[in-house]
Amino acid sequence: MKMTEKEAGLLLLTIQDFIPNFRPGQTTAASWRRVLGKKMTYPEAAKYLDQHFESSRFQPLPADLISLWQADFNPDDIIPVSPPEDLRGGQSSE
Fold first, then answer.
1. Which residue of 8, 62, 66, 83 is most buried, as measured by CB atoms within 10 A?
2. Are 59 and 22 in contact (CB under 8 A)?
3. How far apart are CA 21 and CA 27, in angstroms?
4. pLDDT in tens, 16-70
């Protein structure tokens, strides 16, 4: 499920908790949703935001969370999908 603007706003509130002088503008949540929502869900973004603050004291940008998301990708976790019967080159069971 894609991230909503409200969920992106929750990310901004978390940033404000750690960086009190951070003051997002009226369109900041929409911008974060537009960039991050293409890649990840809110729970994923929140996870990577937490990871960012575990190792950095600087204000994150969407690119920081995307970098953590990409680094977390493990191709061995991909489960191959079997092709449908009609694409296997054998006889159909019908």
1. 8
2. yes
3. 17
4. 999 999 999 999 999 999 999 988 999 999 999 999 999 999 999 999 999 999 9
Can you tell me the distance from the alpha carbon of 90 to that of 56, in angstroms, rounded to the nearest whole number?
55
CA atoms within 13 A on the CB side of 35: 13
Buried b (16+ CB within 10 A) or exposed e, 13-38: ebbeeeeeeeebeeebbeebbebbbe
Distance CA(29)–CA(48), nearest Å, equals 17
28 Cβ contact partners less than 8 Å away, ≥ 6 residues apart: 12
Chain center to CA of 73: 11
Residue carrying structure tokens 């729970």? 43
